[in-house]
Design goal:
Layout lengths: L6 E7 L5 E9 L2 E2 L5 E5 L11 E5 L7 E9 L3 E11 L25 H19 L22 E7 L17 E6 L2 E7 L10 H14 L14 E8 L5 E7 L6 H11 L3 E8 L13 E5 L3 E5 L2 E5 L9 H15 L6 E5 L5 H6 L5 E6 L2 H13 L5 E5 L2 H4 L2 H7 L4 E4 L8 H10 L3 E6 L2 H10 L4 E9 L9 E8 L3
Parallel strand pairs: 5-7, 12-13, 17-18, 17-20, 18-19, 20-21
Antiparallel strand pairs: 1-2, 2-6, 3-4, 4-5, 6-7, 8-9, 8-11, 9-10, 11-12, 13-14, 15-16, 21-23, 22-23
Bound molecules: S-adenosylmethionine.
Length: 488
């Protein structure tokens, strides 16, 4: 087995001013934070007795021996790209997707799933202890996803008049259109996708049919830099029982939209809800756009236990349906409800967690930023026959005030599920003043979760931690912390 005493060649700078340093026979040691793998390397001039600088590499598996070209060189760390695998790790798997390495998704395909899960669990531990400096109890083992492919219920595909060229492709092809995913940091480049393993059929079939139709009928694909072109982006949403919603987005209003929509409706009878949007603004988001129903039902419906949730074109719904159920069950278990508690569900989205725990609560208050989501929450609660949930729309720091809490009742339990950035410090202070007995903190970003919990550490201690894997083959991890009040 190679040790970490590498050979290196060091050529100061290439003509383009880029680093041109190649490290040979680097032994990949472990998986680090941010989904990259970690090794150590010494450069010319480094102390030969030192363990070397930390080196981060993407797409590497612990045990691989690789040649790496540096792309960043700092005193404290290096970053590089694999240019050759000299000896693959015994754990290395062949990626199942033809787009692996170019597409920004599913970067951990070469890692066996049990290693992915261990790395995610450790990431949560590291972030709570290193960022938050928090004391943590023994973790409950991470809940792995039963489905590791085709687990998503929603995907967005972007159209571009200039697709991303693969290595070795003729630059003359650069002007050809593509339909798929944006490539890494390049907002104007789209990788044309043949087959994606993230969403069940008919997702791939619909995307390919749309592209084929657009090419045959010479519809223009969107030019992101110039903000013109007809076919812009599309969303496909699917449910476990086979309902399909498609939202087609166009950069200009045109009569050519309707033959395309009719073609889709007729070719795919399984599309239960077909919408279109004419979006002429500078970004692809449809949250502020009018979604016009072309055919089928206005919504699709997902079931969870005995509840049914309406999903409109703009509704947020957890993207891995099976794992959302595991997540919600754990959040409910950690809440320890016996029918007597007032529960606040902060960042409630369409009120799914609120409704999920409502049978065990005296009353549930749900608060959320997006007014349409709150409308969905109210509609869903009514349709589910739930009468003890109330929902409020607005920015959390404006709605959740001391007087709001006085008016709606002291919370015994607060469930919080904020976006990646975590909670606003004012919200944390209001929660501390409200002093619920328990806080169940659900997070898709353990780093911001650790920061927020650290702000509450004088009054709350973590009594249980449950990581959940919602996104196999990616570095992302969801985590639930149960916090209990201990200050007197
Ligand atoms: C991670 S989602 C959680 C959704 C919900 N708990 C669920 O499981 O479906 C976070 C939610 O917070 C909402 N949100 C983001 N910023 C907010 C803010 N400042 N005030 C209130 N809600 C906010 C988002 O619109 C989103 O619905």
């Amino acid at each position: 087995m190679a040790q970490n005493n590498f050979y290196y060649i060091c050529i100061p700078m290439s003509r383009k001013g880029k680093l041109d340093i190649v490290l040979h026979d680097v032994l990949i040691e472990d998986i680090a934070a941010e989904g990259k793998s970690i090794a150590h390397a010494r450069l010319e001039g480094d102390d030969p007795e030192s363990p070397g600088r930390v080196l981060f590499v993407e797409f590497a598996v612990p045990g691989d021996i690789v040649d790496v070209r540096l792309i960043r060189k700092k005193n404290s760390f290096l970053e590089g790209r694999i240019i050759r695998i000299n000896k693959p790790s015994e754990q290395r798997l062949n990626p199942f997707c033809q787009h692996f390495g170019v597409c920004g998704g599913c970067k951990w395909q070469s890692l066996p799933y049990d290693i992915q899960l261990r790395a995610k669990q450790r990431q949560v531990y590291d972030q709570l202890t290193r960022i938050g400096h928090l004391k943590v109890p023994e973790f409950q083992p991470i809940i792995g996803s039963e489905k590791t492919r085709f687990y998503r219920n929603k995907l967005e595909f972007s159209a571009s008049c200039k697709r991303w060229l693969l290595p070795g492709e003729d630059p003359a092809q650069a002007a050809s259109p593509g339909l798929g995913f944006h490539v890494g940091k390049f907002f104007d480049k789209v990788l044309d996708i043949e087959h994606c393993y993230l969403q069940p059929e008919p997702s791939n079939a619909i995307r390919l049919a749309v592209k084929d139709y657009a090419l045959r009928n010479a519809l223009s694909f969107y030019d992101i830099r110039e903000n013109h072109g007809l076919f812009r982006n599309m969303f496909v949403r699917t449910t476990d029982d086979g309902q399909v919603m498609v939202i087609m987005c166009f950069g200009v209003d045109s009569p050519a939209i309707f033959p395309l929509l009719s073609y889709l409706r007729d070719k795919f009878p399984e599309i239960s809800s077909l919408y279109y949007v004419v979006n002429t603004k500078g970004n692809d988001s449809i949250s502020d756009q009018e979604c016009i129903l072309f055919s089928g039902s206005p919504a699709i419906y997902e079931k969870m236990e005995n509840l049914r949730f309406r999903i409109g074109p703009k509704s947020f719904y957890q993207t891995n349906t099976g794992q959302a159920l595991s997540l919600y069950r754990k959040a409910r278990e950690f809440s320890g409800l016996d029918g007597s508690q007032v529960v606040y569900d902060l960042y409630t989205g369409t009120g799914t967690i609120a409704q999920f725990v409502s049978a065990g609560a005296k009353k549930v208050i749900g608060i959320e930023y997006v007014p349409e989501a709150i409308e969905d929450a109210r509609t869903n609660a009514r349709a589910n026959g739930i009468t003890n949930c109330e929902f409020f729309a607005g920015d959390m720091k404006d709605i959740l005030t001391d007087s709001f809490i006085k008016e709606h009742g002291h919370p015994d339990v607060m469930i919080v599920d904020p976006p990646r950035a975590g909670m606003h410090p004012d919200v944390v202070q209001t929660i501390l003043r409200a002093a619920p007995e328990r806080i169940i903190y659900v997070s898709c970003n353990p780093a911001s979760q650790a920061r927020d919990i650290a702000m509450m550490a004088d009054k709350y201690r973590i009594t249980a931690v449950q990581p959940v894997d919602m996104f196999p083959h990616t570095m992302h991890v969801e985590n639930i912390c149960k916090l209990e009040y201990y200050a007197d």
